[in-house]
Amino acid sequence: MNTKTEKTTITLDDLLKMPRRELLQLEKDVAEAVKQTSVTARNATKEAILALAAESGFGLAELFGGVGTKLPKPKAEKVVRYRDDKGNEWTGRGKRPGWVTAFVDAGGDLETIKLA
Question: Which tens digit of pLDDT belongs to each residue from 28-64?
Fold first, then answer.
């Protein structure tokens, strides 16, 4: 359509005269341009903040106390709820392992292998 250096004003009447296909392409182009300018503006702001902080002798963690940094969640401790005489273990969560299914199918009661 136009190069980046050219500036034109498109009126609603101009848009109404355009074929639908061109309008849809224009819509995609505008959405991409908005996305790119947003990213560019965010990056410029970030660089300006980092430069100002460094210029003043601050680190971001010192200014913001590590806000926004994601710490890994500690994994939940595996709690074994069932154990057979062969040492097989099951937490009671998720699909039953084969040894539990075989035990129950053979007439075993889960309560007999349940840990206190």
Answer: 999 999 999 999 999 999 899 889 988 998 887 777 7
What are the domain boundaries of the chain?
A: 12-64, 82-113
Count, residues in the chain:
116
3-state helix, strand, coil in the chain (%, to 5): 50, 5, 45
Helix (H, G, I), strand (E, B) or coil at 19: coil
Q: Which amino acid is at 73?
A: K
The model's pTM is 0.41
Helix (H) or strand (E) holding 21: helix 20-55
- For 12, 42, 49, 56, 88, the CA distances from 52, given in Å and listed in that order, are 43, 15, 5, 6, 59
Element at 89 (helix H, strand E)? strand 89-90
